[in-house]
UniProtKB/TrEMBL annotation:
One of its GO terms (molecular function) is FMN binding. GO terms for biological process: pyrimidine nucleobase catabolic process. Keywords: Oxidoreductase. Residues 22-166 form the Flavin reductase like domain. This is Flavin reductase family protein. The keyword Protein transport does not apply.
Amino acid sequence: MTATPGLGTPRLASPDLLRSVFRRHAAGVAVITAQRGDTPVGFTATSLASVSAEPPLLSFGIGTRASSWPAISEAGHVGVHILGEHQRELAATFARSGADRFGPGTGWSTGPEGVPVLDGVLAWLVCRVVARVPAGDHRIVLAELVAGDPEGVGHPLVYHQGGFHGLRD
């Protein structure tokens, strides 16, 4: 590898390089939820993307070693929640391995299609899972919108440099 003037010395592709670059990419923060039997499950995602307007589709990624993967791998429907800057602790709870994600301090109710819907979010959707696409050690989940509410109050939470932050002008 040779240095590129003004850009530094390139590094060979690796998981560390990918993580290092994406720490510099600010991303919106969402929590994905599903129901597995009597147990609600969920995780924090920064990989949420709009895919298509007709039909209305979105995507998100999940690692196949994630504790929520078994539920997401079987779920017919998922909840997608856009978090506000006032929900840093909620984002951290759903990102933390072994946390009681639906315990005290997490307000939620059963929404359309039996999906857990979180309280106080900026917006939420319930979506029908239409595909789970293999992508290395992850799966890209494609889901079609069924119902939702875009009317929450506040400013979005973003993930940048390994932490949760409010959006600034």
